């Protein structure tokens, strides 16, 4: 279906589709089996401008918005959700920077994000702080012109490969959650090391690492925004990034259908193609309808987001202010509920579609030679990272209670 995308978005869609088919597809099975990051694919992303789709042209990006990013993520994930995470997690790590950064910080970091010269990652989760981000224990205490960081993060995507980490820390532990701040920490800073590499069910080509900070001295110029406002920036980041996970989930669902339908058309049992058995055809129809519903939800949301995000970026560049401040001036929409709805719905669709497609194809789909079992393994993560399905439901019900309470007050 045509989602009224503009010329630039259409070009991104076509280019990503081609890149995914020509470059990603031949690599995915081998890299998944070896559980290896692909430098070859990183080079392709760099050459194609994929890393900076959502960044302004002033920094070497394409000047696209959240829709461009989501579309690219859908198309890449349609072929391999793991290799799609190279641009995906760099965006996740760099979005909080881009939203909260000063003009000087943007100029320092954005060109290398856009060119793909430097990869970024997002480090919030800790062993004792998963769904409850406010429980984080990593501290960053001021010492002259530096913060001294101590603590451990775990389950960090693109760990070790990334050059910069946007790390959630507590700069004032006595204030609890109000002490949470965001710091950019560069790989190679003394005291910053990598611990365990996780062995995973899915998205195996993307390395997931533990990060260890032992008396890491981080220049105060690497603080994003103001001290103590970290949770606010994190929420804003997740509002913009969760539709990306939803798009990834739509891509996984579509990719599973792409593998399944041709097989059902050619596989014969009882003397006829198995797709002609109505039970199977009807199931495919249901799965296709749910996938399209997910896609419609994602792009209607990202298009609305872009009507605020793109003007805020333009104003921040013109005024030398932060994108976060410009978004605040616009007094726009809170996206939290809609982002959570998109992620909840699409991640459940991805899991259902991948699971059902394996059942529909039968034994062949259980085997590693056929790509479907990988879609099933990859789909699961969309229900977990950037907040589990339960956390998305918590976001939605919290927003609904507020909405209805406000309506009650008006009556
Ligand atoms: C492969 C992978 C990659 C990841 N990448 C990153 C990354 O790059 N950066 C990063 O910071 N993090 C990352 N994560 C961490 C991820 O965001 C967390 O795993 C996720 O938020 C859940 O936290 P948890 O695993 O500690 O589960 P827990 O918080 O321990 O939750 C366990 C269960 O309890 C439920 N639960 C918890 N609290 C509530 C509640 N209030 N109401 C209802 N149910 C609740 C959860 O939904 C879940 O079912 C990654 C995780 C994985 C698996």
Give an overview in words.
By secondary structure, this protein is of the alpha+beta class. It has 11 helices and 10 strands. It folds into 3 domains: 7-118, Butyryl-Coa Dehydrogenase, subunit A, domain 1 (Orthogonal Bundle); 121-224, Butyryl-CoA Dehydrogenase, subunit A, domain 2; 230-404, Up-down Bundle (Butyryl-CoA Dehydrogenase, subunit A, domain 3). Helix content is 55%, strand content 14%. The strands form 3 sheets. A 4-stranded mixed beta sheet has the order 1-4-5-8. Helix 4 (85-100) packs antiparallel against helix 5. The structure holds flavin-adenine dinucleotide. Flavin-adenine dinucleotide binds at residues 89, 121-125, 130-131, 155-157, 200, 203, 208, 381, 384-388, 390-391, 394.
Biggest pleated sheet: 4 strands, mixed
Number of domains: 3
Bound molecules: flavin-adenine dinucleotide
Query: Approximately how much beta-strand content do the residues carry?
Result: 5-15%
Structural class: alpha+beta
Flag low-confidence runs: none
Looking at CATH, which topology of the largest domain would you report?
A: Butyryl-CoA Dehydrogenase, subunit A, domain 3
What is the top-level CATH class of the largest domain?
Answer: Mainly Alpha
| Helical residues, percent | 40-55%
First-residue to last-residue Cα separation: 41 Å
Q: Rg from C-alpha positions?
A: 21 Å
Order of helices and strands: HHHHHEEEEEEEEHEEHHHHH
CATH architecture of the largest domain: Up-down Bundle
CATH superfamily of the largest domain: Butyryl-CoA Dehydrogenase, subunit A, domain 3
Shape: globular
User: How many DSSP-defined strands?
Assistant: 10
